């Protein structure tokens, strides 16, 4: 009798262990700024990713019924802190890292750290899914099998802006004002290069780099722009650096045009423009709120608002967990190597239209919409944003093929 009881207990324990193992979630580590001057940006990114994770889970989870779980880590805008977070995430069982809001240098450091870890730990690899750091080198000369970019890179975004500026003869003199780090330098470089090719007649009348996140008053920079006689500024500034630039220009009465990569995708930008009431801020992204002929995006935005109480701004961030789940389903596996191979050349229909993950460099190809923050007029701008009478005016829509550029990637695969 004691032997029988022991056997039953062992069988029950084994069954419980198997059930616990089957119920183990697939862990994703979110590593982005959750403190400091860009905390609102990091929280926006986290909320978009968490919403998509919850939605995937509500619809049944992964192909095998496993659920996704999002672990959160603060990058503190530091490569060293992010690498420490990566190790902590791996220790907690994460197989995928979602990141992108700390700058391309941080993402590059994470990709390098993940690559080293994967080389040392075959069978326990980790993937890096990047939603917002758009350095072309990440899918170019420094491309990695372990990294995927879910946003149009800097050159592709600037190509969309260059295509638009080509149709705007009133733009004659451009100043390049950017943050002094990799992305700011590249936004300036591609601005001069691609806009210059599209409009050889345009004059670039000055160029300045400034410390990121440390300038409290942009008046001296605005004075230099005014002295140069610019009518437009190409700036990659974001967060408080963009808001303070807009304020200083408005305080001086300078009615500039600004060309930016993703300004309207950050909370508070529309409010800043509505308060200054002068200046035109044009930016580019895969979608903007209120964009015509995007009913699925409108529905997603309404559901996001209902669930979170916040505004839906970035479909690409929402797309990351969904495309991950699609790749897992195609691979019929949760092994990162198999997921990566399934992601390569994966094409899916999304709320912003068809997208494709280019297999040769892991660069997502998606539409680009050039739009300007402008007053509601009932025609081109029908809805105000952030409680203001300013919204988004569509200026031009470009297909993925119209902004696709070649890559220098020579990828090494496992």
From TrEMBL:
Signal peptide location: 1-22
Leucine-binding protein domain: residues covered: 25-364
Alphabetical list of Gene3D superfamilies matching this protein: 3.40.50.2300
Keyword entries, A-Z: Amino-acid transport, Signal, Transport
InterPro entries: BCAA_transport, Leu-bd, Leu_Ile_Val-bd, Peripla_BP_I
Residue intervals passing through the bilayer: none
Keyword Transport part of the UniProt annotation: yes
Protein name as annotated: Branched-chain amino acid ABC transporter substrate-binding protein
Pfam families linked: Peripla_BP_6 (PF13458)
Protein's UniProt keywords contain Signal: yes
Entry similarity comment: Belongs to the leucine-binding protein family.
């Amino acid at each position: 009798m004691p032997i029988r009881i022991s056997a039953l207990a062992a069988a029950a324990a084994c069954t419980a262990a198997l059930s616990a193992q089957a119920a183990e979630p697939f862990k994703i580590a979110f590593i982005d700024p959750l403190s400091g001057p860009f905390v609102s940006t990091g929280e926006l990114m986290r909320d978009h990713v968490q919403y998509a994770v919850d939605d995937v889970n509500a619809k049944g989870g992964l192909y095998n019924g496993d659920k996704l779980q999002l672990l959160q880590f603060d990058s503190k805008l530091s490569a060293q802190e992010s690498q420490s977070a990566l190790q902590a995430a791996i220790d907690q069982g994460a197989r995928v890292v979602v990141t992108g809001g700390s700058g391309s240098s941080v993402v590059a450091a994470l990709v390098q750290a993940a690559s080293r870890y994967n080389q040392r730990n075959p069978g326990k690899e980790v993937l890096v899914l990047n939603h917002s750091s758009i350095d072309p080198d990440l899918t170019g000369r420094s491309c990695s099998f372990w990294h995927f970019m879910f946003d149009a890179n800097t050159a592709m975004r600037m190509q969309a802006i260059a295509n638009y500026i080509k149709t705007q003869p009133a733009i004659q003199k451009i100043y390049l004002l950017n943050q002094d780090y990799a992305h700011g330098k590249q936004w300036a470089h591609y601005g001069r290069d691609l806009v210059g090719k599209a409009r050889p007649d345009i004059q670039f009348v000055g160029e300045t780099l400034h410390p990121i996140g440390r300038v409290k008053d942009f008046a001296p920079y605005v004075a230099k722009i005014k002295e140069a006689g610019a009518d437009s500024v190409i700036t990659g500034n974001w967060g408080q650096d963009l808001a303070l630039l807009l304020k200083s220009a408005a305080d001086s009465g300078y009615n500039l045009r600004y060309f930016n990569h993703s300004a309207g995708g950050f909370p508070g930008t529309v409010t800043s423009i509505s308060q200054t009431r002068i200046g035109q801020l044009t930016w580019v992204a895969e979608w903007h709120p209120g964009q015509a002929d995007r009913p699925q995006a409108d529905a997603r935005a309404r559901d996001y608002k209902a669930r979170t109480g916040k505004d839906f701004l970035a479909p690409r961030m929402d797309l990351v967990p969904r495309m991950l789940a699609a790749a897992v389903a195609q691979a019929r596996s949760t092994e990162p190597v198999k997921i990566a191979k399934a992601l390569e050349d994966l094409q899916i229909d999304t709320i912003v239209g068809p997208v494709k993950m280019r297999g040769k460099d892991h660069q997502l190809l998606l539409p680009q919409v050039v739009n300007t923050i402008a007053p509601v007029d009932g025609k081109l701008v029908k809805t105000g944003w952030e409680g203001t009478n300013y919204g988004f005016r569509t200026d031009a829509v470009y297909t993925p093929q119209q902004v696709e550029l070649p890559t220098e990637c020579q990828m090494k695969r496992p």
